[in-house]
Amino acid sequence: MTKQIVGKWTLLAVAGLALVGCRSTYPTRTASGGVGPGTDFVDSAVPHRAMVWHIESVHASLDSTQPGQVVAHVRAEAPTSGWINPEFVPFVYATPPKDGIYEFALTAERPGGVAVQRLTPFDADLVWRNPPPGVRGIRIHAVENHKEDHL
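User: That's the sequence. What structure does it adopt?
Assistant: Structure tokens below.
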């Protein structure tokens, strides 16, 4: 009987030492926003922006009422319901693009709670005041694709 007790204690000690020797690879509570090595912790009190899933169409033109202003209407899809406040994030260029097509990522605030898991269409309007000279069109990026339209 003492051999059984000693065997159990030995097994327990070895398991305990193995666990003590292991270091957790789970990161401390840091939010990366889906970018980088950290874990993306979602806090429903803070809006989190992400790129929308798919661009259906882009219609861009020079505004006839405001010279020097580009307007665009974009039809897109979000991966779930509840995405709000779309925003166009411009790409930053060291030199202007040679083709004159300027690029934007279409982002929106993800839902903070429960959302219906289906593609949800929505519209977004871009008003670009004082675009640089030589602009010939815009290209809007989503996770799955991108679409462009010439002025």
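The CA atoms of residues 8 and 39 lie 38 Å apart.
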